[in-house]
Structure formats: structure tokens, C-alpha cells
Amino acid sequence: MPSVYITSQIPQIGINLLKQKGFTVETNNSGKYLTKDQLKNVFYRYNAVLIMMTDKIDMDILKSASSNLKVIANYAVGYDNIDVLDAKRKGIIVTNTPGVASESVAEHTFLLIFAASKKLIEADKFVRLGKYQKWDPMSFLSSQIWGKTIGIIGLGKIGVFVGQIAYSGLRMKILYYDIARAEDFELLTEAKFTSLDQLLKEADIITIHCPLTEKTRHLIGNEQFDLMKKSAILINTARGPIIDENALIEALKNGKIAAAGLDVFEFEPQISEELLKLPNVVLTPHIASATVETREAMSRIAAENIIAVFEGKEPYGLVKTLP
């Protein structure tokens, strides 16, 4: 029977599917990340490994994989944690869970937009500390979101959902930057395809939804912050290193932008002490996809990807690489 190792606890639906198909399944229930040596051991011993986005799979780990390892199933939409080309050279299939998180991440994007713009965290703390003694018409003043301009960087499924919510729910003007123009999206939302610089100059809300690649690493740095409005709010629910975190901290401290909302961080799970001290940033621990519906779908698709490989079929979440 093929063996599967799962590097963290996941919803039971995927585990049940694997067992129903005759796989033996072992799960890391320690609540801790596996060390590199532990990952090497897993890659040597098992026929399939279901990993988390926090598991960094480089060539050093792939070298330890035996010829019996057929598939690495990533429990994530992105796969920047895996050296996909080297896995392919080793004859190991890599899969992901595409499309399942779009709605949840779009919802979380607006949670951060509203929390950052309405000073929600500061207001909540103000009440909890017993400072709310009387209503003050001048306290916690903020700008409304309705009718403002939102700039979407990366128009994949998540970016499209964000745009639809912004247009239909809040009558926002939409600018978007991507490698290709999306005319259907423009017809649906009256969106405008722009350069990155133009988007940064004109948008009131800037939200990042592109993948992390060498081209998008530090896509937003000092030069880009200099282009933004002082009233701008920057949101990131994609990948932390897309923003130069030191540049972001300086921009928030020096009033180059008004606020930020972050679900991801450049060096996560380590968070800069300076970032933690800033009052004009809302922070969440990489939970944009953390809904029961999404996580169960990810569990199911990751398991189905593994099953498909061993049945000789192309998995739904096959990560394809250039020849």
C-alpha cells in the first residue's frame, strides 16, 4: 500500500479519502514544524508527502528523496516554497490546491481594508482600556471607502473577486496592473488597465494579489512608496516578500502612506518589533484562507491530487513547469 506523510494536522476529509483508497497515512501531530533533517527522513521513507507552505523544499531535501517518492502535494495555492524544477528533474510530481481560497482571501482583504481605514484596532483598544467616557464627534475620524479608487496588483482569481466586490458593493473605481489585460473584467467592472507607477500614484487603496517570484520580490519598496498618496492604504494578503518590509516600516513611520493591513510578512513567522509597535498597521497571522470551507476543500483537493498520481491520471492541481 502506498504511504503518505502529512507534515501538519489538516481537516479529516482528505485523510479519510486517502484511507478509503488504501493509502497508509501518518500525520505530524506535534504542533511543531519539521526540521530539515526530519523532512529529509520523510522524503526518503514515504511514497507521497503532503506538505504545508511553511515547509521549504529545496534541492538539499530533494536529494534525500528515494525513487519511491512520486508526489509532493502542497496544501496551498502558491508553491514558492518548493524547488519545482529540481523536483521535476527528480521525477517527482508537484501539486497545489488552486482556486479554493479566492473567496476567503477576497473577504479577508476587505476585512483589512475596513480595519485599517476605520482605525478599528485603535478604537477597540480605546474602549477596552476604559477611555470611552463620552461621545466625541472628532475622535477616530477616517475616510470612507465608498467611491474611492482601489488599485489591484495581480489579477488572478483573488484579484478578480476583490474587484467585483469593490465595484458591485462599494462603487469603487478600479485600476489594475498585471502582465496581461483582462477585457472581460474591464467590461464587468469598468476597470482601467494601468502601469504599476500610475496605479500607485492614483489609488487610495492598493491591494496585492500577485504570486511571489524573483520579479515580484520587493516589488513595493522605497521608490514605490514615494509614488503613493499620503492618504493611501496598502494591503497584502499574497506573500510577504513582495513588500520590502523595512521600506514599509519607514513609510508608515514617516507618513508616506496612511496605513497598512498585512496578513503576510517578509520573514514570517518572525515579525519586526518596529512593525508591532506601529499604530497604523493591522496585522493578522496568515489566515486569509482560514475558513472551514476553504481548508476542507484544500484537504480534499490535496488528497485527490495524490490519489490521481497513483491512479496514473493527471491531478487537478498539477504544477506545470516550462520544458
UniProtKB/TrEMBL annotation:
InterPro entries: D-isomer_2-hydroxyacid_DH, D-isomer_2_OHA_DH_cat_dom, D-isomer_DH_CS, D-isomer_DH_CS1, D-isomer_DH_NAD-bd, NAD(P)-bd_dom_sf. The keyword Oxidoreductase applies. Residues 111-288 form the D-isomer specific 2-hydroxyacid dehydrogenase NAD-binding domain. Keywords: NAD, Oxidoreductase. Transmembrane segments: none annotated. Coiled coil: none annotated. One of its GO terms (cellular component) is cytosol. The keyword S-adenosyl-L-methionine does not apply. PROSITE patterns: D_2_HYDROXYACID_DH_1, D_2_HYDROXYACID_DH_2, D_2_HYDROXYACID_DH_3. It holds the Pfam family 2-Hacid_dh. Signal peptide: none annotated. Belongs to the D-isomer specific 2-hydroxyacid dehydrogenase family. This is D-glycerate dehydrogenase. It comes from Candidatus Curtissbacteria bacterium RIFCSPHIGHO2_01_FULL_40_12.
